[in-house]
Write a structure and sequence with these properties.
There is one protein chain. With about 750 residues, this protein is α/β, with parallel strands linked by helices. Helix content is about 20%, strand content about 25%. The strands form 8 sheets. Strands 16-11-10-21-20-19-18-17 form an 8-stranded parallel beta sheet. Strands 3-9-7-8-6-4-5 form a 7-stranded mixed beta sheet, with helices on one face. Strands 29, 30, 31, 32, 33, 34 and 35 form a 7-stranded antiparallel beta sheet that branches. The longest helix has 17 residues. The chain starts with 6 loop residues before the first strand and ends with a strand.
């Protein structure tokens, strides 16, 4: 949104000399997250060799951030004593007055030929202005020269977070500081530091030295190797010990470092489940009294609460954050159900099941944290009757948990695994490092909206913001973490900062191109945009034509294609707009740079076949969760895409058994049907596909059987077409397809194709 009305700035009405961005300036100024107001004016400011800097008293400390500027040097900051004595040149950090009409958390950045003026009410907002100035320096062609401009901006949400699990793999403090630096540039303000979990305990607790002498060290460097080979811990100094921990001094130093950048560190210590490492060294806190049996603390043992209280006392002494995360996700209640101590406690307190027992623990911990003026955060598993009203929920199991919590009156931070888990694949899984599963490209992150329509209007105030979660089991190095987080985190930065009406994917993608050089300059190992071509085929039943659309993650045109089944080369036409085909065709495409093919060849069939629009009978019904287009799905001419929820993949939790009626005898040369495999949702290929023919709809003859030859261990998302070609044409009125579900899984089919 750009506004060109006159503005009252520093007590004077200012009218922009040029109120329309030139195309050049528009492409140069590429801020993420997108400001509410951005005006490009005439002229520019060139940083002198030593830029004078002035600040009102509240901003003297935050002014030190200017020293991080990569292209400018600043003189020592001088205090501005009053609005009447604001210097006429240099960098001026000005305290806002009522006349400035700025919201409490907003800032105004004005650049003209005399210098830079940032106006705000409070240091937090002033910091936003300075960080915007820093981002301009990194993204403009010459960071030492700034176009004249006016920016006014403020955040949408008060909580804008990234989570990092250092239990799955340990990372050095130097990397954490780099991570915080990048968070600050994109105006995140909360770093959720997951310090303890089964793979390793990572924080020094002076009262319990075994936590860092043994629970911080495991038998294998990579989590997966450890997980598949005994899951044991070793004493520090053992030749095979792998892991590490942060001393309390290191943690305090990181807290101070983050605070300078405007980021609060929210610590997480799992106190319900995922405590395997603790129970390995303090087995008396488990329900069995033996190590390596389970990962849940014994709630019926009062010694457990003594331990937790002592640990949390040291945690709150290190971390001044309002919030303390207690973990609790995926806690398995089996140990509690079998434990005499836990059962005795349940009987004593009148708790009817282990869920109530878990919430009773949460209440005790909440009371403890309240005594330190802290607030408890937990995952959506802790929701339920009896949960303290002031407990804050992180909704991670899709959007449902967060929606329920908000409607119940709890403050919520949205962290749905459907959109904001950055341990999921972001590209074709067969070309990517192994990940936890799922598929979350940057565009999907950008399309997320934290405030669901399913939250009552009067409860939406409880959505505090959102957070990207980084579970690191499959990220053994800091470089790998960067690869999984960026640029997806940039998309989230805009989601939690900018209003939905101000977000536009195409505009974000344009601005993102100017942030790749920023990430390169900071030596960030980000995910590079893929050269793979995505071909979409859209069938029009009215015109009996297919419209072919092609796209890549690249911004520059470079897709070359063919429609005759041949592989594209440097002489093939360049794709510029959708292509309409009135005949069946095999379309192939690839991305080229300087006449060289740099990406794989993609292929898609544009079918206009005999079964389109015919009637179909379902001997087995589809699953209600994947209805697609109901009865028309398998004969509507539309193919499914990469996602199970794109409206074209019809799901079955039993066998598929359908019959097509051509209404008359029809000659057939081949029959095909495609299936989507996606292990993340337990969708797999059928064991076999049988094709049967009939003239009367009662007596069927088998025309052929296609057997799935793929490995049952295949873990990637993929589409496989089962195609039966007849040696000689077959004639029949009825065609029956039977696909067997051999894994008690989900079968996802998109189209029965007949020629």
């Amino acid at each position: 949104m750009t506004q060109y009305a006159p503005r009252l700035i520093l007590g004077f009405w200012v009218i922009p000399l040029i109120a329309v961005m030139s195309a050049r300036a528009q492409h140069q100024v590429s801020i993420i997250p997108k400001p509410q107001t951005l005006e490009i004016h005439e002229g520019e400011f060139v940083f002198p060799a030593n830029t004078p800097c002035y600040a009102f008293e509240p901003f003297l400390e935050v002014a030190a951030l200017l020293d991080d500027h990569p292209f400018a040097a600043f003189a020592p900051v001088e205090r501005i004593k009053s609005h009447r004595r604001i210097p006429e040149a240099g960098v001026r950090l000005v305290e806002a007055r009522d006349i400035d009409k700025l919201a409490p958390d907003a800032y105004r950045l004005l650049i003209d030929t005399s210098g830079i003026t940032i106006t705000a009410h409070q240091p937090t907002a002033m910091r936003y202005g300075i960080l915007t100035l820093m981002q301009l320096a990194y993204t403009l062609p010459n960071g030492g020269v700034l176009p004249a401009m006016l920016i006014e901006d403020k955040p949408r949400f008060g909580y804008r977070g990234l989570h990092l699990d250092v239990s799955g793999h340990f990372y050095p403090v130097s990397f954490l500081k780099k991570f915080i630096d990048i968070m600050a540039l994109y105006k995140f303000n909360s770093f959720h530091w997951h310090l303890a979990g089964g793979p390793g305990w990572r924080l020094e607790i002076k009262r319990y030295p075994e936590l860092t002498q043994k629970a911080a060290w495991r038998t294998h460097t990579r989590w997966k190797d450890w997980w598949q080979n005994g899951r044991r811990y070793l004493p520090a100094g053992h030749p095979n010990a792998s892991g590490g921990y942060y001393t309390q001094d290191e943690a305090r130093d990181l807290v101070a470092y983050a605070k300078r950048k405007g980021i609060t560190i929210v610590p997480e210590i799992d106190v319900l489940g995922h405590a395997d490492e603790v129970l390995a060294v303090y087995p008396q806190l488990s329900c069995t009294g033996r190590p390596y049996q389970h990962g849940e603390f014994c709630i019926g043992n009062e010694e457990t609460f003594t331990f937790l209280r002592h640990v949390l006392e040291e945690v709150v002494d290190i971390f001044p954050s309002t919030y303390i995360h207690i973990g609790g996700d995926e806690a398995n209640g089996n140990a509690w159900e079998a434990c005499p101590k836990c059962q005795a406690l349940m009987e004593k307190k009148g708790l009817k099941d282990v869920n109530e027992l878990q919430r009773d623990v949460v209440k005790r911990l909440n009371t403890f944290l309240q005594s330190y003026d802290r607030k408890l955060i937990g995952p959506d598993e802790i929701l339920g009757e009896g949960l303290p009203a002031d407990a804050t929920i992180m909704g991670w199991r899709g959007a449902v948990g967060g929606i329920r919590a908000a409607n119940a009156g709890h403050d919520v931070i949205m962290t749905p695994d459907s959109h904001l888990y950055f341990d999921h694949y972001q590209g074709n899984p067969s070309t990517q490092p192994e990940a936890a599963g799922g598929y979350t490209p940057v565009q999907k992150v950008y399309g997320y909206e934290p405030v669901s329509d399913d939250i009552a209007a009067d409860k939406r105030k409880h959505v505090l913001g959102a957070q990207g979660n980084i579970r690191t089991e499959y990220m053994p190095t800091a470089d790998h973490v960067e690869y999984m987080v960026f640029p997806r985190a940039l998309a989230l930065a805009e989601v939690v900062w900018s209003a939905p009406a101000d977000r536009d994917w195409n505009d974000f993608q344009r601005r993102l191109q100017h942030h790749y050089p920023l990430l390169q300059r900071l030596h960030v190992n980000y995910y590079r945009p893929s050269y793979e071509v995505d071909i979409a085929v859209d069938f029009n039943a009215d015109t009996l034509t297919n419209t072919i659309s092609m796209a890549t993650e690249q911004r520059e045109p470079g897709i070359r294609y063919t429609t005759d089944g041949k592989e594209p080369d440097a002489e093939s036409p360049v794709y510029t707009k959708p292509i309409e085909l009135a005949v069946p065709a095999v379309v192939k495409a690839a991305y080229f740079v300087d006449s060289g093919r740099v990406g794989p060849v993609a292929a898609a069939k544009a079918d206009i076949h005999k079964a389109i629009g015919k009637s179909i009978t379902y001997q087995t019904s589809w699953d209600d969760a994947y209805p697609a287009q109901a009865e028309s799905t398998l004969l509507n001419g539309q193919k499914g895409g990469k996602h199970a929820d794109d409206g074209q993949w019809q799901g079955f939790t039993n066998h598929i058994d359908v019959t097509v009626d051509f209404e008359r005898r029809e000659s057939m040369n081949n029959v095909a049907i495609s299936f989507l495999q996606d292990p993340a949702i337990n969708a797999y290929q059928p064991g076999e596909v049988k094709v049967l023919l009939s003239d009367n709809g009662k007596n069927f003859r088998e025309a052929g059987t296609l057997v799935n030859g793929a490995s049952p261990q295949e873990k990637f998302r993929q589409v496989r077409t089962f195609e039966l070609k007849f040696d000689t044409a077959q004639t029949a009125r009825y065609l029956r397809i039977v696909a067997t579900n051999v894994r008690n899984a989900l079968l996802l089919a998109d189209e029965v194709v007949v020629y």
